[in-house]
Amino acid sequence: MQIAVDGPAASGKSSVAAQVAKKLGFVYFDTGVMYRAATWAAIQAKIDLNDEAACTALAEKIVIEVGPASIDDGRQADIVLDGQDITWEIRRPEVDASVSRISAYPKVREQMVNQQRRIGENGSTPGIVMAGRDIGTVVLPKAPLKIYLTASAEARARRRHEEELRRGQLSNYDDVLAAMKQRDHVDSSRVTSPLRPAEDAIIINTTQLQMSQAVDKMYSIVAGFLKS
Length: 228
Ligand code: DC
What we know:
Helix content is 50%, strand content 16%. The chain has 228 residues and is α/β, with parallel strands linked by helices. It has a single domain, classed as Rossmann fold, CATH 3.40.50. α4 (93-102) packs parallel to α8. 2'-deoxycytidine-5'-monophosphate binds at residues 9, 31-32, 35-36, 99-100, 103, 132-134, 183, 187.
């Protein structure tokens, strides 16, 4: 059983989908971490992020592993790049600022999508909830249930701002909002797999919802689907 969950940055997608997966006893996989890991690798290697060929070559070379959380520090999973734990590094603002650029390169996407399809098709008993931007449209177009979570840019920026403050990072709401709008623009206007709901996706708008309400809403949609 595959459930595809897509939506823009900070729509609540990751936390809502992770909680719903847990309630169902399904595997949860957040595909954004792979694009973030590739971006972190490029920053560390001091590669010019505008150099598509160099970014692609790097994406083909690196080994990204995503496994169950081994440390109880608030992480949903361990993200390991070439043997090094980068779970928190990939959440840094410099990654936020550049990840849209790297994830727009078609051959970088090809690498990631192939791995994601393998994960979606194997090792996902009794089911998998896969979250991203193009899961329902490209990665798992035959997923029987597709959900698209969205919220206003202001609501999403407020959530991201509060999350950064909680993590002890310096954060300014106006800057977060501007960066969010910029990332939305790049993610939805790119030529390869732009961010958009699949035609058969069920849309959940979380602007007015608390996280727990969004979880309840998504869970009831999934439970209704599984019963039918
Ligand atoms: O969900 P997130 O903010 O962690 O995603 C990070 C970036 O990766 C985001 O700017 C878009 C990109 N992404 C993508 O293009 N396709 C996916 N399936 C997941 C994320």
